[in-house]
Amino acid sequence: MNYTFFDFLELIGSLGIFLYGMKLMSEALQKVAGAKMRQILAAMTSNRFKGMITGLLITGIIQSSSATTVMVVSFVNAGLLTLVESISVIMGANIGTTLTAWLISILGFKISMADISLCIIGLSLPLLFSGKRSRKSWGELLIGFGLLFIGLEFLKNAMPNLNENPQILQFVRNYTDMGYGSYLLFLLIGTILTILIQSSSATMALTLVMCAEGWISFDIAASMVLGENIGTTITANLAAMVANTTAKRAAFAHFLFNVFGVVWVMSIFPFFLRFIEKLSIFFGIGDPSTNLSSVPIALSLFHTVFNLINVLLLIWFVKLIARIVTKIIPVKESNENNFKLQHIKIGLLSTPAASLFQAQQEIALYGKSTLSMFREVMESFDFNEKDFKKHFDHLKAMEDDSDRVEVEIADYLTKVSESKLSTDNTHRLRAMFKIVSDVESVADSTLNVAKAIDRRNEQNVTFPEDLSNKIRHMFELVEAALIEMCDNLKKEYTQINIKKAYELENSINTYRMILKQEHLIAIEEKKYDYPTGILYSDMFAECEKVGDYAINVSQAIREVGSDN
Question: Check: CATH 1.20.1560.10 for 344-562?
Fold first, then answer.
């Protein structure tokens, strides 16, 4: 019986069901526990060992090291994790991904999980059609689990029967007896397959099936597993292509870590295989070199031991790895903090909660950029006309960039709004729309202050020293309000205290009333001419507007907390 193109399509379809089941299960788990996952990462990465355990647990739960590392990259991009913390989490993810091999080799090949999976899917249907979102997420989780093993069963059945297709066995044998050449070839095959499939777990399942069907021997399968360890790093690196510099470094650290492990294992490959064979015999699994039935579990043992040793070797050098990737990927000489997207460029995450967190980090950066813009106005207040012109052109460009960033963030939030949102996330989304508008208004009013300074310079108006000092004091009050605004933007929306923000707003309003009254008296007493008075009043009035927008931001954040 020949292996036809239709049989090949069945194989690809089976792989598709397996991947879809894993994806559905992973995303459902994030929906069930996604809100907690961020807090777990923050709390459990205080040292390298806690970070490693965190990565292990999360990957063991969602059954995908690629999903964990992409998540880690997004958290690094969002500023939640440092580079050093992220490397230890990624190390743990490498151990966690080995649980998939054990799950498949023990359950997938020992009992008919497909039959059990159909029962699980049947029981989960009522949950899937539940009106309550949390129950629906549990239903998706169970269906994803069921599809995972149904896909595996189909995958096993779709593989060609070598007894009926000896030419395939002959074809494989042509490339399995070249010693190290075969190891390197199948290492490359494992890498390419994982890159194409975008899942080391799926490629591992395919490798286990090939072993069970007698396609390849234990040593060849082991070399494929090493290739899968390299291929799995590509997903995170693809996600990091549009991320900030630190996120790129985290993804590249994963690549370096896995490549280093493959290099040292390949240098002692025959000895390492003999060690695994002895270990397999010791645990009662059997000798994988002679006993075909013991190969799947022995391969899982190889995968686990390799990753454990690699982590134990390198976990002491996390800071060194961070320094190496920092040198390899330097910070580009550019104004990264001046109104440039750094977080939401990765795109929507798998859950609305995660996407909103990503948007929150972007908005916090947006607020920080407006603070930088205001500080530039403060610094340029005493510049002469020529020096100020250079800054004024830059400030106008910054305001244009601010308009663009506002639109980009608003577009992103609009996409998030198209998802099914919880009541809490709906309130959070509405607040974010208000916040983005007010932050952009801060930039508008800041530019208006700069325009007033520019008119002062063009008209050769010189402020009396007491007026200049009063404007400087107003600048300081507004700067303090913007700093408080930025601090509130970085905090969890439900946990802020805006007492200080109100105090600063009252100080700005009170001082503005004092300046306004003094200004009217000064005009009547002709202490300075009318054009000077107009420029002066425009400056402190626009500063007061900046303060209004700053308190609006904090109020919008506080409303999220009061709604809970």
Answer: no
